[in-house]
Amino acid sequence: MVDITAAELSAAEKIFGDRLDLAKRYVEHLATSGTERGLIGPREVPRLWSRHVLNCAVIESEIPQESHVADVGSGAGLPGLCLAIARPDLELTLIEPLERRVIWLQEVVDDLGLDNVTVMRTRAELAVGHIEADVVTARAVSALTNLAGLTIPLLGGKGEVVAIKGRSAGEEIEKAAKTIRKLGGVQTTVVTVGDHLLEEPTTVVRIVVDKPQKKS
C-alpha cells in the first residue's frame, strides 16, 4: 500500500467521495506496474498522492457537468484517469501515441471498471475530426506555444482547454498569445485550483475557445 498522510486523505475524501477506493487502487497501479513499465519514476512513489493524483484531480472543479473531455498525452492517466474516477458524469477520451502506455492504461481502465473512458492510440493532431471534445486537458506535454496547436483543434471550434502548468504559466501565455488567438482562443487565464485542499495548489492555464464558423 502507498502511504497517505492525514491531509492527503482528507483532500482525497473531498475530491473522490464514495469512489475513494477506486482512487486508491489506481495509485497502487501507478506504484507497481506503472513504475515497472516506466510510466512513473520509482522516486515518485512516496509523492504519488500529493504531487500527481491530487494535483490532477482538483481540476475537476474547472470542468462543466457531463462534458466530453479529451486528455492529450495521457501517459499514466494524469489527469485523465483521475478525472474519470472523481467525475463519473464525464466522458473521457485518453489520447496516447505510445503502445506500452496505451496497453497499461487499458489494463487499469478494465481493472477499475471505468465505463466512462475510451483509450485511443494516436497522436493528438491525428485525432482531430475523429473526436470533438467540450474540454481538452493536458499535463507535462509541452510548452503552450506547441500545446495550443495540439489541444485547441480537438474542440471543433468551441470549448475550453484546461492545461496543468507550473510557475512559468504566465510567461508561456505571453509567448503563445498569437498562436492561441489564431486558433480561436478568446480568453486565456491562469487559475489556481485546490487552495483550500492542497499544500501546493495546482496552477492551470484555461483557454476559452470560440472560433467563428466559416460561411459557406
TrEMBL record:
What domain of life does the native source organism fall in? Bacteria
Name of protein: Ribosomal RNA small subunit methyltransferase G
Q: Which InterPro entries match?
A: rRNA_ssu_MeTfrase_G, SAM-dependent_MTases_sf
Task performed by this protein: Specifically methylates the N7 position of a guanine in 16S rRNA.
One GO cellular component term of this record is: cytosol
Instruction: Give the organism the record lists.
Output: Pseudarthrobacter enclensis
Location within or outside the cell: Cytoplasm
- E.C. code: 2.1.1.-
* Statement: the UniProt record of this protein carries the keyword Transport: no
Annotated keywords: Cytoplasm, Methyltransferase, rRNA processing, S-adenosyl-L-methionine, Transferase
